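We both want to read discrete structure tokens more fluently, so let's practise on a single case. Once you have written the record down, we can walk along the chain together.
***
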Amino acid sequence: MLRAAVTLGATAAGLTALLTFKTHSSQPTAAPEATPTPSPALSSAGAGATPAATSSGGAKRPASAGTGGAAAATTARVVTGAVANTQHGPMQVQLTLSGTKITKVVVLQHTDDGSESNMIDSTAIPQLTRETLAAQSARIDAVSGASYTSSGYIQSLQSALDQAGA
């Protein structure tokens, strides 16, 4: 009887500790990169002026000069991943990239095996999209209860990243 009471108490304490554990998310560190601030050269330029980038020495050079210019980093391109066939239907994603950064994810096709599948997708796809934008890769966690959706999403996402060369 004493052993059962101790076991229950330890289980309750462990469960309480687990539920109150707070993790540090990587999103606050990524947020400053997601909201770039305008450079002084852009804010002081005239209406028809060409944007310029400053080098470490402070000298201005055109943004298009060289391969590392700001114009190359801001060019958006759209890449469509291959269709991943799952047991509940196809999954296909399309990425918008600015340089090598994923800026937008659109799900072109999603599993459709009835109302339950649609309900699962309605919660899983936004979560997978948020994780993709935060991770900037296909190394994201599957959504619990949406294994087929997650698997197809990740396969199509990886296919799009492979095509983009990212």
Summary: Confidence is low (pLDDT under 50) at residues 24-73.
